[in-house]
């Protein structure tokens, strides 16, 4: 089970009914939550502004499925007091400026302890209004682990000459540490196009750009 899956499993069992997951990879996070709910037999609902509400992967037919307040209200209508039900709201920070939305979420999170309903906001930023600060716990969706990066790398470097080994592999994995899966895939692919091999210098180049965009500072030494 992934780190996010383990953390969510703990929070559900401890009945933390409001969870804000900070993630730059929402689809990966949803996949991890889907695997968790499938293995535990829990209910899962997801919502985003583009596709509306999905219940166990199926798009809801109701016209209210696109409405953010309707999505939150739908949790109670589709839940089972005997089984935990998780509602994942993707990029929902964009709707936190609405007093009606905030009030509905506060009501749902508070009542969730009785009905075993869980509201999960999935967003790249944490923007909790004061009314919700004490109702939510914040969880970071961690970037891929070293093993996950190695697996990703092996799927891209399919020829023997492309795949680094030994200290060269360590250097590549060091360079890719902290990147999202999407960023790592791009870096590995660009290195193949440039050098017909996976090299750390190309990865560091893209990592530098990512850090500049996020306002971060490079604290690691460049690997040659």
Instruction: Please outline the major beta sheet.
Output: 7 strands, mixed
Cα(first) to Cα(last) distance is 35 Å
Strand order of the largest sheet: 4-3-2-5-6-1-7
Taking Cα atoms only, what radius of gyration do you get, to the nearest Å? 20 Å
Give the integer mean of the pLDDT values: 87
What structural class results from the helix and strand content? alpha/beta
Helix content: 40-55%
Q: Number of DSSP strands?
A: 7
| CATH H-level superfamily of the largest domain | P-loop containing nucleotide triphosphate hydrolases
Estimate nothing, just give the exact number of structural domains: 2
Number of helices: 8
Question: What is the CATH architecture annotation of the largest domain?
Answer: 3-Layer(aba) Sandwich
* CATH class designation of the largest domain: Alpha Beta
The gross shape turns out to be elongated
CATH T-level topology of the largest domain: Rossmann fold
Residue runs with pLDDT of under 50 for 5 or more positions: 216-224
Percentage of residues in DSSP E strands? 15-25%
Order of helices and strands: HEHEEEHEHEEHHHH
Description of the molecule:
The chain has helices spanning about 5-15, 25-40, 70-75, 100-115, 145-155, 165-175, 180-195, 200-215; strands spanning about 20, 45-50, 50-55, 60, 85-90, 115-125, 135-140. With about 220 residues, the chain is an alpha/beta fold. The protein has two domains: about 5-140, P-loop containing nucleotide triphosphate hydrolases (Rossmann fold, 3-Layer(aba) Sandwich); about 145-215, Orthogonal Bundle (Helicase, Ruva Protein, domain 3), CATH 1.10.8. Strands 4-3-2-5-6-1-7 form a seven-stranded mixed sheet, sandwiched between helices. Strand 2 (about 45-50) and strand 3 (about 50-55) form a beta hairpin. The longest helix is centred in the middle third of the chain and has 17 residues, at about 100-115. The chain is elongated, with a radius of gyration of 20 Å. The relative contact order is 0.13. Mean pLDDT is about 85; it is low at about 215-224.
